[in-house]
Amino acid sequence: MSATSRRVLAATATSALLLCLTTACGSSGSETSSSGGTVTLRYAIWDAVQQPALQKSIDVFEQQHPKIKVKIELNAWAQYWSKLQTQMAGRTAPDVFWDHVAYFPQFAQQNVLTDLTPYIKADKLDTSIYDPKLLAGWQQDGKQYGLPKDWDTIAQVYNKTMLEKAGLTQSELGGLSWNTTDGGTFVKALQKLTVDANGKHPNEKGFDSKQVKQYGLALGSSNGQTDWWDAAAQNGCKLQDKAWGKWTIDQPSCVEAIQFVRDLRLKYHVAVPASVTNTPNGASLPQVMARKQAAVVWDGSWDLNAYQSSMKGNFGIAELPGGPVGKGTVYNGLSNALYAGGKHPKEAWELVKWLGSEESQKIIVSEGSVWPGIPTLNKDYVAVWKQRGVDVSGFSKEAEGTTIGYPLTTSSATYSVKVQDAFNQVWLGQQSPKAAADSVNEASNAAIK
Q1: Do residues 151 and 138 touch, judged by C-beta distance below 8 A?
Q2: Residue 26 — φ and ψ, nearest 5°?
Q3: Which residues contact 34 (CB under 8 A, 6 or more apart)?
Q4: Is the whole-model pTM more than 0.85?
Q5: Among 309, 67, 329, which Cα is nearest to 224's?
Q6: Where are the domains of the chain?
C-alpha cells in the first residue's frame, strides 16, 4: 500500500463498510465466465507497482492450469474498497482479492470470505512455511480466511548526504534511544540534523523554530501505523487488551508515547510541523524527502519504490530507535482472500494456493516490489535491493524483533475516522494527548460489534 493510499483509509473504510452492512453481502454469484471448459477468474488488487510481478506469476499458473485464465483487476486504493463492497452487494465481487487486516474483521463477520481450512486439509498444505504471526492474523474461531501474501513493517528512511553531513552513520542512527525526560540520544541526533535558515541547531542559542531549513525528522500517519503506534510499542503500550478485544490506547504508556511524538514537533522542534504532514491533505513522507525538508522519516517498506524513484539511491534504511522498554515496530501483511459468493471456488482456491506458494512468491520477490509472505525468501528480497544499491535489511531486522500487529477489531472504521481527527489536533497543539486518547478509545470500544 502506498503512502497516499493509507492517507484515505478512514474515509473509504466508513463509506465502504456502511454500504455492505445495509445490503445483501455474501450472496452467491460472481462475474466469472467459462467457454470450452475454460474458467476465467477475476483477481482484484490495488498496487500498480506489483502488477508486473503478479502477471509473471499468473502466466506460470496458467501454463500449469490450462483450463483456468486469470484477469487482474487493478483499482487504486482510494476506490478499491468502495468498489469491492459495491460488487459484493451486487453479488459480482472478484473471485480472489487482496484483503487488509483493517477490513478483515468486518468481512469475516459479514460471511463474504471463504474459510480455507477444508481446502488446506484436503490438499495437506504445509502452512508452516509462513510466519506464524502473519498466518494468525487471518484466523478467527479456528477458521483460516487467507494465506499470507506479503508483509510490511516500519523503519527509518534517511537521506545519505544529510546524514553524512551531520557526522552520523547508519549504525548510529539505528542504535539511538528516546525517553520521556530529555528525548535521549534520538533527540540529540535529530538536533544535529535540524538546521534553521542561519545554520543554527535547536540546541544552540539563536535557533529560529519558525525559519527551519531542514528538519531532522518527518512523521505522518492517518491512524498511527508509521508514527505513534511504533513509539507506543517502544514504551510498552498495547493498543488492545487482546486480538478482537477492547482498545486500550488510553493507558499511561500509550499516552506517554503520543506525548513524545508531539514533543518532537512542538517542544524539541526537530520534526516537520503537522501543518505540512497531517492527513489526508498534507504531503506524503516520500514527497517530504524528495523536497529535502527532512533528513529522516519513519515509513513503511511499501514505499521503497517511491524513494528509489525520487532519490535515485541516495537513501538508506536504519532500524527505528529504542524507547523506554526497548525496540518495537508495527508488523502487518496482506492476504489473498477467496470470495464466498464466487461461481468457481475450486479454481479460485487453486489460484490462492498458487499465489501463496514458494514458487510464486520467488517470482514476485525477484521483481523487488514487496516482501514475501514466506520468511525463508526474505534474503532473496534483500539481495534484489542490494543489486539496486540499497540495503533494506533494516526492515527485516525490525520484523524479526519485537513487533505489534495491526489491531484486529470490528470497530476499525470508527477508529480510523476518530483517530485522524483527534490526533491531527494533537500534533497541532490543539488537543492534549490524554484527551484525544480517551475520546478515541471510548468511541472505538463503543463501536465494537
Answers
A1: no
A2: 85, 5
A3: 40, 344
A4: yes
A5: 329
A6: 3-149+336-373, 152-331+407-446
Residues in the chain: 449
Output the nine-digit C-alpha cell for 335.
492476504
Residue-wise pLDDT for 144-192, tens only, equals: 999 999 999 999 999 999 999 999 999 999 999 999 999 999 999 999 9
Sequence-ordered list of residues with C-beta below 8 angstroms from that of 90, at least 6 positions apart, any chain:
none
Q: What kind and span of H or E run contains 207?
A: none
For 383, the grid coordinates are 539481495
Q: Quick one: cell of 242?
A: 487482546
Angle (nearest 5°) at CA 49 between 48 and 52: 85
Can you name the residues that pair with 336 across neighbouring β-strands? 98, 147
Taken in order 232, 170, 7, 105, the sign of the CA dihedral is negative
CA dist., res. 251 & res. 245, Å (int): 15
- In this chain, the answer to whether the domains covering 3-149+336-373 and 152-331+407-446 adopt an identical fold is yes
Beta carbons within 8 Å of 22's beta carbon, 6+ residues apart: none
**C-alpha cell at position 331:** 508488523
* Residue 84 contacts residue 44 (beta carbons within 8 Å): yes
pLDDT higher than 50, residue 20: no
Q: Which CATH architecture has domain 152-331+407-446?
A: 3-Layer(aba) Sandwich (3.40)
Q: Residue 392 burial by CB count (10 A; 0-12/13-18/19+): exposed, middle or buried? A: buried
**What is the CB-side half-sphere exposure of residue 35 using CA atoms within 13 A?**
1
Tell which CATH classification among 3.20.10.10, 3.40.190.10, 3.40.30.10, 3.30.465.10 matches the domain 3-149+336-373. 3.40.190.10
> Amino acid identity, residue 440?
V
> Are the C-beta atoms of residues 50 and 78 closer than 8 Å to each other?
no
For residue 414, what is its C-alpha cell? Answer: 470508527
